[in-house]
Amino acid sequence: MEWNAETLQFLSQCFLHTLSPQPEPRRAAESSLAEAADRPNYGLAVLRLVAEPSVDEQIRQAAAVNFKNHLKTRWVPSNDPNASVTFPPILDPEKDQIKTLIVSLMLSSTPRIQSQLSEALAVIGKHDFPKSWPTLLPELISNLQKAAQSSDYASINGILGTANSIFKKFRYQYKTNDLLLDLKYCLDNFAAPLLEIFLKTASLIDSTAAAPGGGPPATLRPLFESQRLCCRIFFSLNFQELPEFFEDHMREWMGEFRKYLTTNYPSLESSSDGLALVDELRAAVCENISLYMEKNEEEFQGYLNEFASAVWSLLTNVSQSSSRDKLAVTAIKFLTTVSTSVHHTLFANEGVLPQICQSIVIPNVRLRDEDEELFEMNYIEFIRRDMEGSDLDTRRRIACELLKGIATNYKKQVIDIVSVQIQSLLSSFTTNPSANWKDKDCAIYLVVSLATKKAGGTSVSTDLVDVQSFFLSVIVPELQSQDVNAFPMLKAGALKFFTMFRGLIQKPVAFQLFPDLVRFLGAESNVVHSYAASCIEKLLLVKDEGGKARYTSADITPFVPVLMNNLFNALKFPESEENQYIMKCILRVLAVADISSEIAGPCIVGLTSILNEVCKNPKNPIFNHYLFESVAILVRRACERDASLISAFEASLFPSLQTILATDVTEFLPYAFQLLAQLVELNKPPISPSYMQIFVLLLSPESWRRSSNVPALVRLLQAFLQKAPHEVNQEGRLNQVLGIFNMLVSSASTDEQGFYVLNTVIENLEYGVLSPYMSNIWNVLFMRLQNNRTVKFQKSLVIFMSLFLVKHGAQNLADTMNAVQANIFLEILKQFWIPNLKLITGVIELKLTAVASTRLICESPVLLDAAAAMVWGKMLDSIVTLISRPEQDRIEEEPEMPDIAENVGYTASFVKLYNAGKKEDDPLTDVKDPKHFLVASLAKLSAVNPGRYPQIINENLEPVNQTALLHLCTTYNCQIV
Amino acid sequence: MADDSPASHRRDPIKSSVGNVAAQRRRQNAVTVGKERRESLVRAKRLCRVGATGDGDVPVEESDMITDEEGFLLDAQTSSAVEELKSAVACQGKGAMQKRVNALRELRRLLSKSEFPPVEAALKAGAIPLLVQCLSFGSSDEQLLEAAWCLTNIAAGKPEETKALLPALPLLIAHLGEKSSLPVAEQCAWALGNVAGEGEELRNVLLSQGALPPLARMMLPNKGSTVRTAAWALSNLIKGPDPKAATELIKVDGVLDAILRHLRKAYEELATEVAWVVVYLSALSNFATGILVKSDVLQLLVERLAASNSLQLLIPVLRSLGNLVAGDSHTTSTVLVPGHEITDGVVKVLVKCLKSDHRVLKKEAAWVLSNIAAGSIEHKQCIYSSEAVPLLLRLLSTAPFDIRKEVAYVLGNLCVAPTAGEGKPNLIEEHLVSLVQRGCLSGFIDLVRSADIEAARLGLQFTELVLRGMPNGEGPKLVEQEDGIDAMERYQFHENEDLRNMANGLVDKYFGEDYGIDE
């Protein structure tokens, strides 16, 4: 794409139309842009447009966004072979030009465009900086120095912002020499200019703030933003280790840091956004000193006392205020780091702990308006923070972390003080429950948060209170309160406590509360009915010693009708239509309770109606997953009890499943195929015609095109092959099935699926039906063996040959293979079967291949021939390795990298339904023990030809294996003569 | 294929295969952005205030602090001294030589007077070209000595000031030769040592101008301050990061022999400088490391460690030992064979260092042990049954962070068997069980909480061992009791993908709910 007036016109028009509220011109513009984007120099042209002053600002802004996105996909295009689209990469000459232009363009543009270009620059930097972009850093530095001379803070902050984003790569990475070399380059060049601008800005702040009234906010704002950016860069550059330059200039940095923590800037702090700005700088400072405290405690030691006291007094103020979260969190983190370091003695002084508890911990743990708002307005986020551990950055949680930190060295003191606090909070609640309910909440929160965590979100123990008596005196009254809607946060806290300590609450006590839990499903508060559902769900998972479930179907069956009723009703509350906690509870109840037809009926109606609803617009994948699992488990367990229910389920489910297939609800297709497979398997032949329609659909290559469907389709195909083998052999369907096998097996990422199909065919069809196709099948497999011989494929091949052998005999196996090419059977044995046999894993697979191999050496004329004695011996050697050594001694990890990458592509979008899973079938039920089978077969064989085999064994088996074989003979009392 | 595989190969920090890391051998990073710790003990640049040969005629002032006024005065005196030298150099004929020497001596006195010599004033006044002229061939020893002395102290200044010596380098190198008198050669070596101490760029200039061979030869004699100065200058010169100079040095005839001799017999100050040479040889050059480990050097280092209490000496000796252990598998496979006397000796001196009050010694000793612990099963057993373990366990719970991290590597390595492949390491159950029983798990869980990602990874790896390897499925319960679940759950959304996957994987595998429970 050349840069000329025409291009300018074309691009401006397009970008203008992309902003149009009318869909037609907008879509047309988007598609012409998408098309133009494939042409060389498109990115450059768009960048030029962004720089064109004559063009309207909003067009340039749209262009800047487009430019950034263009770079994201094409600077280094993804090499994921499963990506839906692959983009042609931007060519080097164009890249060079973009890199030449972008810094100065970014600096001279308006703030909105600047932020887009800065992001674009960061995209380039991520791949190219510093090695492939040596001019960037010098350019930034010289611009920084220029801008600093004229105190042009718009530019300074633009440059610092850019530097901040390109240096972020030094955070959270493992130390490698490459990373350190890049870091060293950045430090050598940038450490000094950074300090220079930081100090310059610091003195500007000092002189401005010294003016009467604290200086004009408009002047101070960019200065504080600048200092914050410097602090973030400081963090990146210091993350890996303490660089020499920073160690040498620690005093300068720390001096300013301390100033920002201890000084007030009234002219800024009088407005809330001004205060936020100063606090952001303070928070960045706290992160830096936490980093130093954690990693460089020796060098930082000299500053520790002054910072500890600065942070302390800062926190005493901040803790009283209801906003200022970020600052409170980072500041408390610093104190936590100190508390766990070798300098923890700072906390040992008389009176320090009670004061921390009083003025820092309790105020931060107490509910604030924001928490109440979140509780009401966004229950999902509230639960994620409150229950699911994404509260790492909340004040409540971090205040408890501080207590835990101090407790690492002063456990007893912490327990004493907190216990006293809890008692006083509770007694304050008792004096006036409705006014002081937050005190009780605070007490419950402290107990839950300070307990030691156990698997699945329970608590193991707490030394703060006696759990049993706390539960009875504090929690139970809340749970038994008749009004499910009163003080909902307190109810939520009580339910959470019950859930967390569920393992410690004795069964009779918990059981008595079960009706109350069911009752709370009817609470209006989304959090409360979610917690009630969650609590029931988790209770049903509690196991006693020995792994037995504590609550059984007998326990809950009496409640099930009302429980189910309340659960389905809870899904009708506003915003709980797709409440995953409730759906998960439904799933769990269906897994535990006795599914009588009285329960199955309403449940399937309820579930299908929800299913029909979510089909219209699948939103919450977790909810949907539990929904499908619920359907699957309902069908499975109900039919296990009463097989006649299947037709009722079919009648309910078919319309929904057909809708999914017909309207191509992509997200749900794998689920639908799995449910269909389950239904097919539960059917008794003959299969009804409606299924055969689906079978036809299944065989069309169209269905297999989406890789996320493949595992589920294979599963469905297997079900059909098992249940309707005769139908498969009609109307050329077998040919179609083998076509699918052919397609799957040719690619390394789906070959396993291909073998599933093939194995099912081999297992379920008569040899007479198969024989005309065998040449073709062998051709396909040998071709693949020639083109791409992965270990996984070879192992699958050995398993397939074994299955064929045990189903259709050794002679048929050898003959069909040799029909493709003379004597290939023996070659395949030597080259693939023998070496891969010992790599087979899995109980069923091991037995299958061991038995098949044993039959080979005992039945196959080719191997019994004297000329093949060595092959015979090696095969036996392999069999003995396979059956006598533990798996980890036989198997080496396979370095099949490309496969892994490819597999990730589809497993990510394929979700397996646990409850619609296939049971593993053992094709060899008549053989119990492959070891016994081996030695018994050998004994029989050798009896016919005494003296022949011991010699072959002696010559061809590894000594270890000879010993192992001998041992097996003794164990099973068989003799090889 | 001798050396010169770039340092990046040798210094490969821990490989990132999940689970196996604790078993990897580790070495100091060649690329370092941190301050070189040597400098706090032995400065890379040294001022020469009393003549190398002890003939200093300047009364050294006791107080290093000089007032502004004095500083101003000193600057003025320096300027005029340079002027004086200028006219002396211009002067021809009778008495000119003496005049030059006098002027040089005056300048040298001024440059040696305080800890903060008036280098800037001397440079501003144009001292360098004059001093270069004074170094010309055929000048008297006295003149050469004074001029080199002046240059030495100028080079001890700030980076730019050191760089000002560039025009003087060829002549300073030339005067290192055997034809020069010892005092002149030593003074020149000193000046060059300061230049080399400045940085990589100047080191490369010196190497390309051929400074290394004559300096190396100066190290060969048995004693004398010259040997010590040369060793110090060499240690600066071969600092790299390019390993070429180190390789070149060990190839010089007699150098290996001299190193061994000095380590065996020399007084502590000389042995210290020589040990620093060994530090850089072994840190940088595979070739040199290969040669050193086949010599007696390990034995000598161990003897020094056992005999001395001088921190100045112990640090480079210990670090050399560590580099040799980490740097060449020959060391652990053939020299430090379990059961050999030297192996017990090494463990014994390392225990001594672990007991020391000095943190650097503790840390380096733990680092060396971690590398030995990464060896064979027998190595692990040897450390496991030594006096080191109780010390390490105590350090893991009480020491500052960086020592704890090194200690954790030792303990972690003791619990995993060497593996050939990349898979999960096999456990040494006996060690794991006993170390866990003695309370090391909480130390590792603390590391999981660390902001340092290497430490966090190590913590997670050890946690994995405990979860997988404690008998009777006791692992999960122990981890739970130490609040390990909470520690791992912090990684739910961590920025480091590898750590996130490790932690989430462990929580899922060992603490996940059995989601699809069946009856």
From TrEMBL, chain A:
GO terms for cellular component: cytosol; nuclear envelope. It is found in: Cytoplasm; Nucleus. PROSITE patterns: IMPORTIN_B_NT. GO terms for biological process: protein export from nucleus; protein import into nucleus. Residues 29-108 form the Importin N-terminal domain. Pfam families: CAS_CSE1, Cse1, IBN_N. One of its GO terms (molecular function) is nuclear export signal receptor activity. SMART domains: IBN_N. Keywords: Cytoplasm, Nucleus, Protein transport, Transport. It comes from the Eukaryota. InterPro entries: ARM-like, ARM-type_fold, Importin-beta_N, XPO2_C, XPO2_central. Gene3D superfamilies: Leucine-rich Repeat Variant. Belongs to the XPO2/CSE1 family. This is Importin N-terminal domain-containing protein. It comes from Hibiscus trionum.
UniProtKB/TrEMBL annotation, chain B:
Residues 1-29 are annotated as: Disordered. Keywords: Protein transport, Repeat, Transport. SUPFAM superfamilies: ARM repeat. InterPro entries: ARM-like (IPR011989), ARM-type_fold (IPR016024), Armadillo (IPR000225), Importin_alpha (IPR024931). One of its GO terms (cellular component) is cytoplasm. The keyword Hydrolase does not apply. It holds the Pfam family Arm. Residues 1-14 have a biased composition (Basic and acidic residues). GO terms for molecular function: nuclear import signal receptor activity. Gene3D superfamilies: Leucine-rich Repeat Variant. GO terms for biological process: protein import into nucleus. Belongs to the importin alpha family. PANTHER family: IMPORTIN ALPHA (PTHR23316). This is Importin subunit alpha. It comes from Hibiscus trionum.
